[in-house]
Amino acid sequence: MSRKWFAQIIILSFVISGLLYYTRVLDRISNIFYDTLLKITANKPESHFPVVLITATEKFTQQIGHEPNRNDYANLINLLSDCKLIVSDIFFPSRQSEETDRVLGNSLAQNAEKIILPVFTPYKLKKNLMKPDTVLTF
């Protein structure tokens, strides 16, 4: 009798295990266990994290009344001049006025040691673009 019960328990265990595997319940249980383990053992981040993300959204554009231009970015860089690092993903594909280009260039030059600019261009680079008469200087 004990062998019969033992065989039935083994067969029932395989059936239940197969159903749990097929319905992916074991994955969910594993994920819940892993998430709980991470919450318990992970280092808690500081309440004051020294990173600020500044984005130019549609709402921001409406508030200032125009698309952000080079003067706006120059002012922002000057405001952030006390930061340890400034990362920008702004791409200006062409010149604007000489004045706005100079203002932005001066802001970039004053903060050159702590600003990272994008290495991106949607245009195909050509050798003739590297001639000195086409290089922007600030």
Structure description:
Strands 1-2 form a two-stranded parallel sheet. By secondary structure, the chain is mostly helical. Strand 1 (86-87), helix 5 (98-110) and strand 2 form a beta-alpha-beta unit. It has two domains: 2-41; 58-121, no CATH class. Residues 128-138 have low confidence and may be disordered. It contains five helices and two strands. The chain is rod-shaped and about 95 Å long.
The share of residues in extended strands comes to: under 5%
DSSP helical segment count: 5
**What is the element string, with H for helices and E for strands?**
HHHHEHE
Radius of gyration: 30 Å
Structural category:
mainly alpha
Fraction of residues in H or I helices = 40-55%
Q: For the report, how would you describe the main beta sheet?
A: 2 strands, parallel
What spatial form do the alpha-carbon principal axes imply? rod-shaped
**pLDDT < 50 runs, ≥5 residues:** 128-138
Instruction: Tell me the distance between the termini.
Output: 93 Å
How many domain modules?
2
Strand order of the largest sheet: 1-2
Average residue pLDDT: 78
Strand runs, count: 2
Which key features would you list for this structure?
mainly alpha; single chain; disordered C terminus; rod-shaped; 3% strand; two-stranded parallel ribbon; 138 residues
